[in-house]
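so my prof wants the structure for this chain in the tokens format not the other one, which i didnt know existed until like an hour ago. anyway here's the sequence
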Amino acid sequence: MSPRVLLFPFSIIYGLIIRLRNLLFDVGFIRSKSFPFPVIVVGNLNTGGTGKTPHVEYLVKLLYEHYKVATLSRGYGRKTKGFIIADDKSDATQIGDEPMLYQHRFGKNILVGVGEERVAAIEKIKQQHKQTEIIVLDDAFQHRYVKPGLAIVLTEFRHPYFNDYLLPAGNLREPKSGVKRADIIIVTKCPEDLSEVVQKVYIDKINPLSHQQVFFSSYQYNNLVSLNEDLSLSLESLKEYEVLLMQGIANPKPMKKFLDSVCNKVHLLRFPDHHQYNREDLNFIERNFNIIASAKKIIITTEKDAMRLRDVSLSVQVNQLPIYYLPIQVYFINKQIEFNQHIKNYVKKN
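here's what i got, hopefully its the right format
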């Protein structure tokens, strides 16, 4: 008997609790607060690994040149509590790796906030930064105290929510019926050659409601950026390198698969999701790197991991290693213009 079968009774109990919670929100016994300005929520039904961070970045890039945009996250993995607005002195221990990535990417062009209580955090953003016009909430689909104007749910191509089970037997945070609250459903991390036939299969399984739209997105990997110096390394040159890939993210497989296709050889060193690196970790990484016999070798990590490696206490060790991060960006298959226009229309109307 598989461990999953043994966990199904606990999934049933968990499902009853979540269904009751959702019902209390649906009937208004527990109130959701709406706001008189655009609030976009990006989330998922599965636990982690669907690509929320690059999709939030995509939305910010789409909007920030024309509007005053703020992102709001819980700040998972940070060592602080309460509401914080990021500045140029913030680090991942204070605000979390994902908000730190937004701060690093966009700087003063947007406002980056963290706070466990999203309703209170949204109100504080508007009180303290009245010019803010749009707030994008990262990973808040289950945070139903906020009623978004536009809800986007992500599901990974290789692990779609409709083939999954509730926790703890599976990876679903809430029953599959929760997807009905979404306005947009994005199937993420798709093969770049995804056919229209396969797209239709997924759309049929999602069975969207009349008001819902389904899109398919994939990743584009850009040239490597050095964590230590102002240097870059082209993807084409990687065929000469043996690589130690270190990742502290929920799903390391897509990047590993990509690097396998462009590098001489890849060794995966995996850490827990949102792992806060320490000196012992860096020693462990260095030992594994030194084992690689190739004369041409580097360490590659994700941009989120790079934010955690910028901790001042690690700078001496980090600077002694050839660590590069691999930036990624989202693009949509077939319907990118349609997606962009849908977001812009929502913002203009609200």
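also thought this was worth mentioning. The domain at 3-67+133-219+331-349 is CATH 3.40.50 (Rossmann fold).
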